[in-house]
Amino acid sequence: MRITANMMFNQLTKSLQGSMSDIAELNTRLFTGKKINKPSDDVIGTVNAMDYKVNINANEQFQRNIDAASVYLDFNDKSMTSISDNLSKLKAISYQAVNQQQQADRDVFAQQAADYRDFLLTLSNSKIGERYMFSGYRTDQKAFAFNAATNHYGYNGDFGEIKVQFDKEANMAVNVQGSRVFSVPLSRSMPAALFDGTPVSYTEAADTVTGVTTVTVAIGNAGDPAYDTFTYSNVMDMANIMSAAWQYKNIDGADLNADPTLNETMAMHRINALSVPFDDANKQVLTIQAEVGTRQSEFKDQTTKLDNSTLTLQNALAKTEDADMTETIVAIQQAQTALEALRSSSATLLSQSLFDFLK
Amino acid sequence: MSLSGLLDIGKSALLASQTALSVTSHNIANVNTPGFNRQEAILNIASPVAVQGGLMGMGVMVTGIKRNYDNFIQGQLLLQQQNHGRTSAQSQVLSQVEQIFNEVKDLGLQTSLQDFFNAWNDVAVNPEGYTQRNVLIQKANSLVSSAKSMERSILATLKNTNTEINDIVDRINSTASDIAMLNDKIVQAEAGVNSGTANDLRDQRDNLLNQLGDLTGITYYEDKNGAVNVMMGMRSLVSATKTNTLFSQMNSDGNNEIYLDGIHITSNVNKGQLGGLIAARDNIASGPLMDLRRLIASVTKEVNLLHLSGFGLDGSTNNNFFNTLQLSTEDASAGAAIPSSSITDLSQLTLDEYDITFDASSNYYVKDKQTGATVTSGTYDPTGTTIAFDGIEVDISGTVTSSDSFSISPLTDAIRNFGVSITDTDKIAASSFGTELHGNNANALQLSKLSDTTIANLSGSSFSGYYQRLVSDVGVMSRRASDSLKFDDTMLNEIQNRRESVSGVSLDEEAANLIRFQRSFEAGAKMLQVTDELLQTILNL
Known about the structure:
The complex is a heterodimer of chains A (about 350) and B (about 550).
Chain A: H1 5-32, H2 43-95, H3 103-124, E1 127-128, E2 131-132, E3 144-147, E4 152-155, E5 163-165, E6 171-173, H4 178-182, E7 200-206, E8 213-219, E9 228-232, H5 235-246, H6 260-321, H7 325-351
Antiparallel strand pairs in A: 1-2, 3-4, 5-6, 7-8, 8-9
Helix pairs in contact in A: 1-7, 2-3, 2-6, 3-5, 5-6
Chain B: H1 3-29, E1 39-45, E2 49-51, E3 54-56, E4 60-67, H2 71-100, H3 110-125, H4 130-191, H5 199-215, E5 218-222, E6 228-232, E7 235-239, E8 242-243, E9 246-250, E10 256-260, E11 263-264, H6 272-309, E12 328-332, E13 336-343, E14 354-358, E15 363-368, E16 374-379, E17 385-389, E18 392-398, E19 405-409, H7 442-449, H8 463-503, H9 507-539
Antiparallel strand pairs in B: 1-4, 2-3, 5-6, 6-7, 7-8, 9-10, 10-11, 12-19, 13-18, 14-15, 14-19, 15-16, 17-18
Helix pairs in contact in B: 1-9, 2-4, 2-5, 2-6, 2-8, 3-4, 3-7, 4-5, 4-6, 5-6, 6-8
């Protein structure tokens, strides 16, 4: 092949260009610390990196959700403890009805029951931020309120479960509906008779929409002078009935019976009839607390899982798009050496011509 | 044989050497001229004369000056020049578009898309929170502006490409007229000459042909007079000394179409920079741009569908989160028009584009442009026909012919109309139930999960999956173009080297020739001197 001046020149400029663009690309890699700087550098790598980022981002969001949810769950956990304490106390007071009590003691019991009732009401209307914690979805409403017309405590909430996403496929409720905590369905161990042998019956009516169970208690046989019925739908109701009964009164403030002896018997019956429901209510609260605990530990597990998954993804991401610095620097040095060699050899070649040797 | 015969031989030697020296000088002078082919004086033995005892040589004569030129290489060079022009233009445009989708640097849509759905997640965690709702509206707005800025950048690239197409059309015209002018000169120069060609003019013309090949796809042939005829897009661009004008005209899509001598040839222009630009432009418009619009239309559709079914803090429902999708219609009919078109059922919308055509017996056909399937058909009533299909209702009235057509697209304006329609945070429908349930987050939860849901309109991908595919398509497109460019560059270089090898000037070679012909000139002169001395000798007798 004939070699001409232009061929050499073209070849040289091409080679110089090639070397320079190699160095420029390696330099970009060094500046950015990334080996992929545009999608066409490595299409599969780019798409993988995007996918890793999506997943890392999703994990961060789930973690954020868990952090927010944990506040609610921790609160629920602590609330259950307080509620349970109150219920134990109420149950203890209800057991005092087995014996006849002095007026002064009865006043104390009545006052204590009223205090626990009010304390439970306050607990049921706890609020975090803008949210009433025990109202289901109706978080802008207090969960329970006293109805002066019926002298009963009513539930304003619903059975809504506020769920939070903590994994791609999984949600978990962060609230406990007030109706589940404060309203108690009948258990299997309801007594058929009171301490003195008086028959007692409990009938329940459940509202499936709100989750509230209304229980009607009948004491004695219909037609008896001391026959008595009353209803309650939550623990505040129960405490309220008991507080009144210790004063030998109905919840509306009237005497239970005109006859003082019957009045006392009926009041003692009422208080005694409430002791098993108080016990059940306490059990239910402890069950819910265990449930909340399970959710908390599931969140804890999920946090570990998310951390691990994020770490794996970040490693994969780094492997996909980060440049190996040592390798890059060595490559730059190689390219520079090649460029220098090219420059010095071309300097010699281009400057020589036969004309130099003609005289 | 006389002594004066010797003088003639000496003279022929001098003349031949001088001509060869001129040719050598010409070569040296043009060592760096692009397209110059090395020339050579062709020396031949002069016709001998008969003398007693045989034929006697009569010296040397120059029979011509030829250029070292290989027709085959020139053909290959032109072809490769066209490929190179195409790939270099394509790679340039596509690498610009690639930057718009450069997710490696977190430019693009992915972050804002994810932020938007994360904001829904935050609303789900805190459905009664004002801050979370406000952040959601902010994130939605930044998704809108990301999408809009991406579309703007793509459209700007397309506009630049169209401007460049215009420039190239001008350059093709001027190159074509230069070729026509050279044709004229070459025909005139070669007309009287029996042997040899107008070397330097031909070099210039070959060079122009190569330049033209870089600009556009051409074929050419040389006629018997030495003029070349150049064809472009199967039409004549240069015919001997006559040229036809190429011009570009903008169509309704804002794209420049190419006309040669009034005939539309855009689809026949495949090579050279012009072909590359047209191909890149059409690829971008039908690929990334369309896909981006489809993605945004799909986000609008799915988010709105869920949002319409939910309830705000104020109990309001049936509110759109994003501005509603709008149909755009294109009318390719003289007699008929579409007075109204609307989306009647958002959930039925396929996000495909449709063509409505008519036949001679006034039936209409609606064809899905993406699947190619006929969606519906029926009898057309010129007083007004309502056509309903796939959640779309179109009214057409007026006289139609079988060559008329309408096209309907929910995508064209999808990004232009994209915007957040909710301004009141209380209207954000986090709740799935009618009465004012502040804590109900079921709908927000559904909306946040949309980011992972597979969407039928996006061929079963999720939003981010579809977007990833889009980025990978752009990456592959750009990669293919730059790989082709590398290949075509090497090929072109190779062919140019081969051309140089045959036609290029080697200064060393010319230096040697210089010495060679200088010596032969000196020897010829010496010969004259000797002859002169011989004559003196005779004269002194």
